[in-house]
Amino acid sequence: MNLKKYKTRIPLARNIDSAILAELFLVNSVLSILAIRVFLSLTDYPQLGGGDLHIAHMLWGGILMTTAIFILLFSIGKSGLFLSSILGGLGFGTFIDELGKFITSDNDYFFRPTIAIIYLVFVMLFFIFRYMLVRRPLSPREYLINASDLLKDIIATEDYDIEDVKKLNFLLDQSEADPKLKELFIQIAQKFKTDREYKQSKYLILKKFLRTKFLQIIHTKRFKELLNSIFIFRIFFILGSVTVSLFLYAGKNFFDIFSEVGFFEVGILFSAFTINVIVILGLYRYKTNTLKRLYWFRTSTLFSILFFTFFSFYFNQLSAIFGLVMEILLYYAIDIIISVESKPKSNPLTN
């Protein structure tokens, strides 16, 4: 195998585990923000320090991120990567939670747009990660590098279990490496073979369990039949939530909110109107075409996640996260159903 043709100006290779690493980073970032906000609310926003001294929790976020970097610099193996992604996520969430202090002249932690801006940052990170992961498949060179990385981990842990066997064989097969090189990799790994039972992390076990249950629900005939009703209910729910959000934001003088209409007021009204119109058009235009109707439903949920939720975070702050979770689950469910429904049906005459 000629590796020279894979040379680039920036010789970076993507990690095959980058999806789960990015997921851990984002999940822990969100959890840290939620934990901090809930803790501060329950404890009436205590100040760490005395007198004029105030140790902002942004500093703890910096310490966690620095620790994650040190782990990456001074460790070899997957365990260091996973630990650094967790600590880095916790640190990033702790850091960005104080964003309001650094974008306002009076260092206002409670600056209302902060949560919406933080949400926007996470959306951007998600799309950056997704672009890096799915823009193109791994090259043979990257598969070989990942195989080498796995071999280092096997040597470091002195543990070559059944899962490592499967993974190493897969990586080497995809790498198009010379058979002699493949054999050498296997021989080295075999020296660390163990009979210990492979134990999956609790996080992955929980994730797999929830995903299985979720798939069982959405693949039922009942769920598919209820989709139209769910989206009709969603129309009224969104209209109601917008009304309540504006009412709570305006206080007693509800109609005063329309006297000074700003960016966020226009944004939440326009985005709510748009996502509901998309659903109505899908229901009206494709009464008999389920697949096309689902495409419109998916577009509506995507528009909601990208735009409506952003404005919802401004008015409802962290409570908007419940609506976001429901929209993500709905989008995920529709996307799976579309992928199943769009597959060509097998012809029994050709079997």
UniProtKB/TrEMBL annotation:
The keyword Nuclease does not apply. Keywords: Membrane, Transmembrane, Transmembrane helix. The chain crosses the membrane at residues 20-42, 54-74, 81-103, 109-133, 231-250, 262-283, 295-315, 321-340. The keyword Ribosomal protein does not apply. This is Uncharacterized protein. It comes from Candidatus Dojkabacteria bacterium. The lineage of its organism: Bacteria, Candidatus Dojkabacteria.
